[in-house]
């Protein structure tokens, strides 16, 4: 090998080795803590003629089944709203209904990857009203299967005429 070619090869190898040695190591992905740990929240269901339900419930995101909508995931990953499963208002309503023995129903909208709550305790939103969802007094800006709940949150489903 010619001396210049050998020197260039040696210098190039040394520079490349030095560059690789000084590049910071690629960060390893840290495991996501259990974001879907059960949380205790307060739920209020306010119908057109008064209070239909009020209580505290322990909940986490899970599959939800309704007569009209079928079975779908309702854990905050809907619509890519959260990177991992979390407790949600609709899952909390579902848990409250199961624990306190009342019914609710909702239509599944694939385009929104979420349920629309249609009926709670046989009170139907119908053509002139709907069930609005708020958390801590503020209407949710995403669906009830997309909003992340925290321990102590106050969830309200309110029959709202339009």
Task: Tell me what the structure shows.
This protein has 162 residues and is of the alpha+beta class. It is built from 2 helices and 10 strands, in the order αββββαββββββ. Strands 2-1-10-8-9 form a 5-stranded mixed β-sheet. Strands 5-6-7 form a 3-stranded antiparallel β-sheet, with helices on one face. The chain has a two-stranded antiparallel sheet with strand order 3-4. β5 and β6 form a beta hairpin. The N terminus is likely disordered.
Strand order of the largest sheet: 2-1-10-8-9
Percent of residues in beta strands:
35-45%
Unreliable stretches covering 5 or more consecutive residues: 3-29
Structural Rg: 26 Å
| Main sheet: strands, sense, barrel | 5 strands, mixed
What is the mean pLDDT?
A: 86
Global structural class: alpha+beta
Total DSSP E strands: 10
Note the run of SSEs as H and E: HEEEEHEEEEEE
- Number of alpha- plus pi-helical segments: 2
Shape: globular
Helix content: 10-25%
- Rounded to the nearest angstrom, the distance between the terminal CA atoms is 87 Å
State the main characteristics.
38% strand; three-stranded antiparallel β-sheet; alpha+beta
Quick structural summary:
It contains two helices and ten strands, in the order H-E-E-E-E-H-E-E-E-E-E-E. By secondary structure, the protein is α+β, with helices and mostly antiparallel strands. A hairpin with a 2-residue loop joins strand 6 and strand 7 (123-124).
């Amino acid at each position: 090998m010619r001396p210049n070619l050998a020197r260039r090869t040696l210098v190039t190898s040394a520079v490349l080795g030095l560059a690789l040695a000084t590049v910071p190591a690629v960060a390893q992905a840290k495991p996501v803590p259990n974001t879907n740990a059960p949380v205790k929240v307060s739920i209020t269901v306010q119908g057109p003629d008064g209070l239909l339900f009020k209580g505290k419930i322990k909940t986490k995101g899970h599959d939800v089944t309704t007569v009209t909508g079928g079975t779908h995931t309702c854990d905050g990953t809907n619509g890519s709203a959260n990177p991992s499963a979390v407790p949600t208002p609709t899952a909390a309503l579902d848990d409250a209904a199961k624990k306190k023995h009342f019914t609710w129903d909702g239509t599944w909208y694939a385009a929104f990857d979420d349920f629309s709550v249609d009926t709670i305790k046989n009170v139907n939103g119908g053509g002139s009203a709907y069930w609005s969802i708020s958390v801590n007094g503020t209407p949710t800006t995403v669906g009830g299967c997309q909003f992340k709940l925290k321990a102590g949150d106050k969830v309200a489903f309110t029959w709202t005429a339009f």
